[in-house]
Each structure stands twice: as C-alpha cells, then as structure tokens.
Predict the 3D structure of the following.
Amino acid sequence: MDSYYSQFDYIVGSIHELALHQAVTVKETIFNLQRNQPQMEEWVDLYFNRVKEMIKVRRFDVIAHPDVIFRFLSYDSLPLNVKSQYREKILELGWLCDKYKTFLEINLSGYRSPWQDSFPKDNVVTQLLMEEIPMVVGSDSHQLSDFLFHLPTIRRLNHLLSKNWKFTYKFDPSIFSG
C-alpha cells in the first residue's frame, strides 16, 4: 500500500474475514454462529478487536461498515450479551478513530438488509456526532438503484456532518480538532 497510497484519494479498510474461510459477510456463516451463541460472542469480540487493530495501524483513511458482522441479522435477534455491548463497542471504535485521525463510515447498506438501520445504528451515530467523532457517509452501493434509494439519507447525514467536515481532494488530517 505504501507504494500506491499517493495515487489514491483515500484508502478504505474493512474486515470481511476473521480467518481464512471465516467470512463475516456470508449469510450461512453468520446464521450458524447465531445458533451457537457462545461462539458468536467470541466472534463478535474477535471481529471488533480486529477492527481496532486495523485503526491502530494507521494505514486507512476510513473504516468502512464497522459492524458489518451483523449484516444478515436484525438487532433484536442478537444474543443478549452481544446486544448489551453493542453501543460500547462502536463508541470505542469511534474514539479510536478520533485518536488515530481516521474517519468512521456511516454505512447505509444496513437499510437493505435485515439489520434495517445504518452501520453503526442511527442512535449510536447520534452519540458519535455529539462527541464530534470524524465520520463520512457511504452507501455501499453496488448498483445505481441502491445509491438512489439512499440519496435522501446521504444528503441528510452529509448536512449533519458538514459542520466539521471539509471536502478535500485528499483526506487532510488538519481537519481534525486538537
């Protein structure tokens, strides 16, 4: 990445696998984990720890869909232990992003899945906004229809973020406060 970094406007990082053939974005894998709740709790902890590691390496300008491990689940279907720790795990990621001058993505693809909310959830995004965590909005659109579906939400969130956000050619660390 070091050789090519200057050729890109920004680099987005995300976790899709915890280990070889342990994809967190494969429906069957997640459904199997949901059936085995202790294993799911371990995977969720491991997933969030990997996202933290990704932030700390300081190679990425944006951390994408920081809780995509829940893509095929609804919030209500999460095991109680996972659900009770969700907000704190996301806030920890936000605080790390702020510390390491990395943007956290508000990813709207969750609205097209059983999650039926953004990644992270709207109520957590509100708290991140109050804490002035640096964020960007992404639609994760793979088709024009997906993007058009999300356009009103993208505009609303960009308006909320624009107070502290400067649109630049290359992400500029000087836009962070402190």
